[in-house]
Amino acid sequence: MALRMVALSRATDGRWFARKGIPKDVREEYARLYGVRREAHLKLPADTARHEAKAQLGEWGAEIETRIATLRAKKNGAGQPLTRLNAIALAGRWYTWFVGQHENDPGPAKRWREMSDHLVWDVIYPEAPESYHDNPKADPHWEWQKEPEVLVQNFRKQTGVVPRLEPEEDPWVF
């Protein structure tokens, strides 16, 4: 089976365009959700610089592939890896929910300190990459903890829930 990459082309009038076929196994659902049955199209104005067109092609291609992966995951009843932005949105939504649970009665400060220690040392720290364990001073701000895989893994540990992206409804359905 040949692998076909999405190519950026230029029309005779100078506009940029690209096409991406929608796989048969998700075509009906994709058409229902996005109004496109056989191919997704990217069209950019003629005055778009080549480097900008290439960047937009990459973003557009990732969006289409994510949609297809989401539909397949939904069809198979599986979770889906999240993009960095989706992981951050999920963390924000969870934070809002969690804080709302304790707004009226936050309880003693000791409880929150213990929870903070638990989250930092029992949940986040074990997800650190080997490079961090080898030299912790190299990354004093723990930048690795913001990676989508770490955020999702921590969410799963705390809730036991595998997040799934549901495009036609609220984007975070559990």
Describe the protein's architecture and organization:
The structure is a single chain. The protein is mainly alpha-helical. Helices cover 49% and strands 8% of the residues. The protein has helices spanning 27-34, 50-76, 84-101, 109-124, 130-134, 148-159, and strands spanning 9-10, 16-21, 39-44. A 3-stranded antiparallel beta sheet has the order 1-2-3, with helices on one face. A hairpin with a 5-residue loop joins strand 1 and strand 2. Helix 3 (84-101) packs parallel to helix 6 (148-159). The radius of gyration is 21 Å and the shape is elongated.
List strands and helices in order, with pairings:
Layout: E1 9-10, E2 16-21, H1 27-34, E3 39-44, H2 50-76, H3 84-101, H4 109-124, H5 130-134, H6 148-159
Antiparallel strand pairs: 1-2, 2-3
Helix pairs in contact: 3-6
